[in-house]
Design goal:
Elements: E1 7-8, H1 14-35, H2 47-66, E2 68-71, E3 75-79, E4 84-88, E5 92-98, E6 113-118, E7 123-130, E8 143-144, H3 146-165
Parallel strand pairs: 7-8
Antiparallel strand pairs: 1-2, 2-3, 3-4, 5-6, 6-7
Length: 166
Protein backbone atom coordinates (compact mmCIF):
# COMPACT_ATOMS: atom_id res chain seq x y z
CA UNK A 1 0.00 0.00 0.00
CA UNK A 2 1.34 3.40 -0.96
CA UNK A 3 1.85 5.99 1.75
CA UNK A 4 0.31 9.44 1.39
CA UNK A 5 2.79 12.08 0.31
CA UNK A 6 1.99 15.19 2.29
CA UNK A 7 2.68 18.63 0.88
CA UNK A 8 2.49 21.78 2.95
CA UNK A 9 0.19 24.40 1.44
CA UNK A 10 1.57 27.28 3.45
CA UNK A 11 5.35 27.64 3.78
CA UNK A 12 6.78 28.19 7.24
CA UNK A 13 6.47 31.87 8.05
CA UNK A 14 9.23 34.03 9.45
CA UNK A 15 7.79 33.91 12.98
CA UNK A 16 7.92 30.10 12.98
CA UNK A 17 11.49 30.05 11.69
CA UNK A 18 12.59 32.72 14.18
CA UNK A 19 11.03 30.82 17.07
CA UNK A 20 12.80 27.61 16.06
CA UNK A 21 16.13 29.42 15.69
CA UNK A 22 15.77 31.11 19.09
CA UNK A 23 15.10 27.80 20.84
CA UNK A 24 18.02 26.15 19.01
CA UNK A 25 20.38 28.88 20.22
CA UNK A 26 19.05 28.53 23.78
CA UNK A 27 19.65 24.76 23.65
CA UNK A 28 23.25 25.28 22.50
CA UNK A 29 23.85 27.78 25.31
CA UNK A 30 22.34 25.36 27.86
CA UNK A 31 24.56 22.58 26.54
CA UNK A 32 27.63 24.79 26.86
CA UNK A 33 26.73 25.70 30.43
CA UNK A 34 26.25 22.05 31.39
CA UNK A 35 29.56 21.04 29.75
CA UNK A 36 31.47 23.78 31.57
CA UNK A 37 30.13 22.84 35.01
CA UNK A 38 32.84 22.86 37.68
CA UNK A 39 33.63 19.74 39.68
CA UNK A 40 33.49 17.16 36.89
CA UNK A 41 30.74 14.57 36.61
CA UNK A 42 29.86 14.59 40.32
CA UNK A 43 28.18 17.99 40.06
CA UNK A 44 26.13 17.15 36.99
CA UNK A 45 23.21 15.72 38.97
CA UNK A 46 21.24 18.87 38.11
CA UNK A 47 21.87 18.58 34.34
CA UNK A 48 18.65 16.65 33.55
CA UNK A 49 16.69 19.16 35.62
CA UNK A 50 18.23 22.04 33.70
CA UNK A 51 17.77 20.34 30.33
CA UNK A 52 14.10 19.47 30.92
CA UNK A 53 12.63 22.91 30.25
CA UNK A 54 14.88 23.40 27.23
CA UNK A 55 13.89 20.06 25.72
CA UNK A 56 10.24 20.88 26.33
CA UNK A 57 10.75 24.22 24.59
CA UNK A 58 12.47 22.43 21.70
CA UNK A 59 9.54 20.04 21.27
CA UNK A 60 7.12 22.96 21.37
CA UNK A 61 9.25 24.83 18.83
CA UNK A 62 9.05 21.91 16.42
CA UNK A 63 5.28 21.70 16.86
CA UNK A 64 4.99 25.44 16.17
CA UNK A 65 7.26 25.06 13.14
CA UNK A 66 5.23 22.18 11.71
CA UNK A 67 1.83 23.82 12.35
CA UNK A 68 -0.06 24.45 9.14
CA UNK A 69 -2.20 22.85 6.47
CA UNK A 70 -0.98 19.78 4.58
CA UNK A 71 -2.61 18.05 1.63
CA UNK A 72 -2.21 14.69 -0.04
CA UNK A 73 -4.03 13.10 -2.93
CA UNK A 74 -6.71 11.61 -0.67
CA UNK A 75 -6.70 13.72 2.50
CA UNK A 76 -6.20 17.10 4.13
CA UNK A 77 -4.45 17.57 7.46
CA UNK A 78 -4.65 20.52 9.84
CA UNK A 79 -1.74 20.48 12.24
CA UNK A 80 -1.88 22.84 15.21
CA UNK A 81 0.51 23.15 18.11
CA UNK A 82 -1.43 20.75 20.31
CA UNK A 83 -3.27 18.45 17.90
CA UNK A 84 -3.43 17.13 14.34
CA UNK A 85 -6.71 16.45 12.53
CA UNK A 86 -6.86 14.53 9.25
CA UNK A 87 -9.92 14.37 6.99
CA UNK A 88 -10.55 12.73 3.65
CA UNK A 89 -11.48 15.12 0.85
CA UNK A 90 -14.95 13.55 0.73
CA UNK A 91 -15.59 14.75 4.30
CA UNK A 92 -14.86 18.39 3.38
CA UNK A 93 -17.80 20.49 2.18
CA UNK A 94 -15.95 23.81 1.78
CA UNK A 95 -12.74 25.62 2.59
CA UNK A 96 -12.99 29.28 3.39
CA UNK A 97 -11.52 32.17 5.29
CA UNK A 98 -13.72 32.94 8.25
CA UNK A 99 -13.54 36.40 9.80
CA UNK A 100 -13.03 36.47 13.51
CA UNK A 101 -16.06 37.07 15.67
CA UNK A 102 -15.25 40.47 17.05
CA UNK A 103 -16.26 40.93 20.65
CA UNK A 104 -16.79 37.20 21.28
CA UNK A 105 -14.63 36.22 24.28
CA UNK A 106 -14.90 32.53 23.30
CA UNK A 107 -13.25 33.17 19.92
CA UNK A 108 -9.72 31.72 20.18
CA UNK A 109 -8.60 33.48 17.01
CA UNK A 110 -7.69 37.12 17.01
CA UNK A 111 -7.72 37.43 13.23
CA UNK A 112 -9.24 35.88 10.12
CA UNK A 113 -8.25 32.23 9.62
CA UNK A 114 -8.71 29.37 7.16
CA UNK A 115 -11.47 26.97 8.21
CA UNK A 116 -12.72 23.64 6.91
CA UNK A 117 -16.48 23.19 6.75
CA UNK A 118 -17.17 19.46 7.00
CA UNK A 119 -20.11 17.55 5.51
CA UNK A 120 -21.52 16.90 9.01
CA UNK A 121 -21.72 20.65 9.72
CA UNK A 122 -18.63 21.03 11.91
CA UNK A 123 -16.29 23.96 11.32
CA UNK A 124 -12.61 23.11 11.90
CA UNK A 125 -10.29 26.07 12.49
CA UNK A 126 -6.67 26.09 11.46
CA UNK A 127 -3.96 28.25 12.96
CA UNK A 128 -3.12 29.62 9.49
CA UNK A 129 -4.37 33.16 9.84
CA UNK A 130 -3.96 36.78 8.84
CA UNK A 131 -1.33 38.78 10.69
CA UNK A 132 -2.94 41.01 13.29
CA UNK A 133 -0.51 43.34 15.08
CA UNK A 134 -2.94 43.66 18.01
CA UNK A 135 -2.39 40.03 19.01
CA UNK A 136 1.11 40.75 20.26
CA UNK A 137 3.80 38.08 20.53
CA UNK A 138 1.59 35.02 20.78
CA UNK A 139 3.16 32.28 18.66
CA UNK A 140 0.79 29.37 18.07
CA UNK A 141 1.05 28.95 14.34
CA UNK A 142 1.74 30.66 11.07
CA UNK A 143 0.52 34.17 10.30
CA UNK A 144 0.49 35.74 6.84
CA UNK A 145 -0.65 38.75 4.85
CA UNK A 146 -4.26 38.74 3.68
CA UNK A 147 -3.15 38.16 0.06
CA UNK A 148 -1.30 34.99 1.10
CA UNK A 149 -4.35 33.67 2.95
CA UNK A 150 -6.50 34.28 -0.15
CA UNK A 151 -3.91 32.42 -2.27
CA UNK A 152 -3.76 29.46 0.17
CA UNK A 153 -7.57 29.26 0.23
CA UNK A 154 -7.65 29.24 -3.58
CA UNK A 155 -5.06 26.42 -3.70
CA UNK A 156 -7.07 24.38 -1.20
CA UNK A 157 -10.35 24.96 -3.04
CA UNK A 158 -8.69 23.93 -6.31
CA UNK A 159 -7.46 20.72 -4.66
CA UNK A 160 -10.96 20.11 -3.24
CA UNK A 161 -12.52 20.58 -6.67
CA UNK A 162 -10.01 18.19 -8.29
CA UNK A 163 -10.73 15.56 -5.64
CA UNK A 164 -14.44 15.76 -6.41
CA UNK A 165 -13.84 15.34 -10.13
CA UNK A 166 -11.65 12.27 -9.62
Amino acid sequence: MRQDQWRRVNPACVRQQWYLLTVAVALVIALLIVCQAPGGGASLWWAPLAAGPFLTAALLAFRVYWAGIYVSRARIRIRTVMRTCTFSWSEVAAIRTVPRRRGDPRDPLRSDAIHLALQDGRLIASTVRVWNPAEGRKVDGPVYDRSDIVRFTAILNDRLQRSREA
